[in-house]
Amino acid sequence: MRRSADDRLFRITTGIFAAIVLLIVIGIGFELWRPSMLSIAKFGLKFWTGRVWDPVSGEFGALPFIWGTLYSSLLAMILSTPIALGIAIYISELSPKVLRQSLTYLTELLAAIPSIVYGLWGIFVLTPIVRKLEMLMPPALRKLPLFSGPPFGVGMGTAAIILAIMVIPFTSSVAREILKNVPLAQREAAYALGATRWEAIKVAVGYGKTGIIGAIMLGLGRALGETMAVTMVIGNNPQVSASLFAPQYTMAAVIANEFAEAADALYLDALVEIGLALFIITLVVNLLSRILIWSMAQRYTSSVVPEPAATKAAA
Q1: Looking at the predicted structure, is the pLDDT value of residue 304 above 60?
Q2: Do residues 163 and 110 lie in contact, with contact meaning Cβ atoms separated by under 8 Å?
Q3: What is the model's pLDDT at position 310?
């Protein structure tokens, strides 16, 4: 009887702790929605599609910042995912034991470097490299929309590279743990069927693909909310452009740059609404990633055909 009461108390207590997380998310959303009511009432959905950001005339549109955030994050994932997965596979499957711990430590050390340090490195090292690269490109190539833009060195491409470097340790660490926890029987079964080492690694990656997708989405979430490093190298120009060299802007960067300078209520509310939009986009991306992971897990489960009862009885 006492054990039943203790179990019930423990269940209620842990349930309260779990509910706190939900309340925090709801509270953050409410506190972002409430101070942005003036901007929501004036612009409505046009705020999400407007391209003009002019505090002097009171015109505010968030599309350049939404575009910059999503574009830079997508480019960062394209650059970082192969490298992160390569690091995870090498450390977990191919690395000699004497190097494994050192490589793991160095990879995780990248995650501990402050964002401002990445930004300074981007300004003094990466920006001149990107500038020289753009100036060395053939004129015909620079006429393409993807490579057009002034040779400043700061721009979308530089920001994407910085983001990719910052995302790599998060994705690779989680992917490494996923591969490390793949059952040894999966690899042994592959070897028993005559598979090479590369083929056995492919089996392990396939077995842990759901978790690896989760690791990639974790890196995407990290890229969406990055502020200081991106602010220092992206150029901070509110425009919608596909160019890798054009200076652009992100949602987190505009809040960090202009929040302290907001001179009137509408300006301040517009900045808060950008924060609300970033919050919504982050939730939607995470929700879509969970749906993707769930659907992959369901397909994997349904592909495993249960052994017929008659076969079990015969055995």
Answers
A1: no
A2: no
A3: 41
| Closest-CA residue to 230 (of 255, 204, 202) | 255
For 81, the token pair is 């995912």
Residue 8: Cβ within 10 Å count: 10
The residue to which tokens 């002019």 are assigned? 54
Q: Dig out the tokens for 36 from the structure.
A: 């942005």
Q: Pick from 79, 68, 243: which is nearest to 161 by CA?
A: 79
Q: Over 60: is that where the pLDDT of 142 sits? A: yes
For 137, the 3-state DSSP assignment is coil
- pLDDT tens sequence across 36-62: 999 999 998 899 999 999 998 889 999
Q: In terms of Cα–Cα distance, which of 297, 83, 70, 286 is closest to 171? A: 83
Confidence of residue 277 (pLDDT cuts 50, 70, 90): very high
Structure tokens given for 150: 């002034």
Asked if 165 and 195 count as a contact pair (C-beta separation under 8 A), the reply is no
d(CA 154, CA 227): 15
The token pair at 92 is: 């977990």
Tokens of 228: 């200081």
Per DSSP, which regions of the chain are E strands?
53-54, 59-60
Give CA separation, 292 vs 219, 297, 307, in Å.
Answer: 15, 9, 28
Which band of pLDDT confidence, cut at 50, 70 and 90, is reported for residue 230? very high
d(CA 61, CA 67): 11
| In contact, 231 and 163? CB cutoff 8 Å | no
Residue 195 tokens, joined = 């598979």
Sign of the torsion formed by the C-alpha atoms of 178, 181, 182 and 188: positive
pTM of the model: 0.86
What is the rounded CA–CA span in Å between residue 233 and residue 230? 5
